[in-house]
């Protein structure tokens, strides 16, 4: 490629104008690459150089030099007047304080050579000696001991353009350190004059300042971008407000929150308190620190903020101390220019703090509850969920079970894992789905005074009295579980009381009752027989036949004897139940027919009440001991009539529960009802409601106890719904008959 045309010489006025233009350009150009290329091109234009190169010394972003001036450690930053191939060669060439460049880079003085060829050593020597000679003459030249004609050139690598005239000047920073060099070349000897040298020195001085400014501009822009990135990444809202209350600048968090608040009236009021009010206080010299603010957003949810407002005073302009004061500083004695408002959304933080506080209080209360429970002699534990998972238990519970029940383990899994069995009070195995604890959590019902027998793996048994209190899940939300289940699971507080001593006393009492009942049956039978005989024969007595009063007395004797007989039968049934000697003889029976028969017979004696039967199914076949179920139905009907003296109707309804495959009978009265505080124990032995006694209604308190025992021995259920003063409805559920059932008698073992 042919070398570029030599620029024609410029007049002094043209050079001055060019220097003015380059001076203005150097002050306005901030891109370092374009700036360096402009400097090199201007140097070539002003001096007529064919080649102009700009070299720089490596430095870090803070402007600190990284390498010494010795060695070939400078790099080419810009070059004009060469081909692309030559430019690539220059960029690979080592540049530094050697040969003709040594005075420039090492000793900070310009070098102007008329003819480089004349400075080449006439006799070839080794490169080491040539460099040593070149360094010595460079030192002598820099200190004025020798002219430039005595300098020594060490040659150029192959491919370097031919240079005859050479002119170079150092770039010095404000500390006088060499930052680089501006190097000119020409293929013609004697091309550069002293005027060119002065121009190049002036241009190098301007270039040094321009390069420094470009570097500072680059640093400022990088810092500005960093500050902007930091500003935008702040999670808090940051807003800059001027003296007129106008928002000058805000980050993304502040913008989003402001736009949300501007959407409704309450939000705009909150925005006024967040920004404008706090800014006004700061402009008055009263900085706002950690001011709490609570507002309601458009979703009607509370949001809490902490607001800080600080004044920003006018900046002092930087002095000649250097670029490190370029950004200025703020002085408290200068007027306030702006206010920065920082609003920190603490809604979530305070919610978490409140949750932690609640958790700590809950744990403290739980710890206190645990200590109280551990002091109780009876077993107490709390379970939740349909599978009765353990939440907490006391020491007595561990002693009761003879094993440690792990937290959150389902009850059935715990019992099976530890080979623990549960039996009815009469010794019959209790199905797992009928455990008192499971019934409480599955049906959300409270069960009181229910007797069970716990059999441990070693064969030992423990009779207990169980009270399972169902807790309303909405009133007692439990959050102890770590699982993702609903916080409104059913729960129950279960207590077990060891009744071994009570059982022994009951056994003695039952023995006495059995003996007494058995011994009284014969005299009562004789008494009842004679009363019936007298009534039947109406034998004459002194003065004639029986008078009306005497007949009524005989009827009273007969009824009293019959009631005593029924009482003896009930007492004997109780003793049989307790002793496990109650025999059941189940057989397939149509429950609808049985109920109609019992109601028809009962209606003969219930003269003041009408019993209405509504059978929603024509046939309901169940496997039952007919006499025992008749006894239950008679007990329930008797209570319905007895405890509703002011009512005229008793409603009996039968239907099939297809989901649970059972027949259900309900008996509803409109009588005095059962007080709520006594409903839990109404199925107990010898238990009668207080309002029944207040109304003067007599009874033994055994009917409901026997009814429950008989129904449960048929794998059924009996329960009730009652409101005092409004009446009671009893429900009896019995499984429907299946042909797969064996028609064997059931005997309590």
Can you put this structure into words, describing what you see?
With 749 residues, the protein is α+β, with helices and mostly antiparallel strands. Helix content is 40%, strand content 22%. Strands 12-11-16-15-14-13 form a six-stranded antiparallel beta sheet, sandwiched between helices. Strands 2-1-5-4-3 form a five-stranded antiparallel beta sheet, with helices on both faces. Strand 21 and strand 22 form a beta hairpin. It is rod-shaped. It starts with 11 loop residues before the first helix and ends with a strand. Keywords: Kinase, Phosphoprotein, Transferase, Two-component regulatory system. Its EC number is 2.7.13.3.
What topology emerges from the helices and strands here?
Blueprint: H1 12-28, H2 32-47, E1 51-56, E2 75-80, H3 84-92, H4 102-107, E3 111-113, H5 127-142, E4 165-172, E5 178-186, H6 194-233, E6 237-241, E7 247-250, H7 252-261, H8 265-283, E8 288-296, E9 302-313, E10 336-345, H9 347-375, E11 379-384, E12 389-393, H10 395-401, H11 411-417, E13 421-424, H12 436-443, E14 447-455, E15 461-471, E16 491-498, H13 500-537, H14 548-579, E17 583-584, E18 587-590, H15 591-603, E19 610-615, E20 621-624, H16 626-642, E21 649-657, E22 662-668, H17 690-694, H18 703-712, E23 717-723, E24 727-735, E25 746-747
Parallel strand pairs: 19-21
Antiparallel strand pairs: 1-2, 1-5, 3-4, 4-5, 6-7, 6-10, 8-9, 9-10, 11-12, 11-16, 13-14, 14-15, 15-16, 17-25, 18-20, 21-22, 22-24, 23-24
Helix pairs in contact: 1-2, 1-6, 2-6, 13-14, 15-16, 16-18
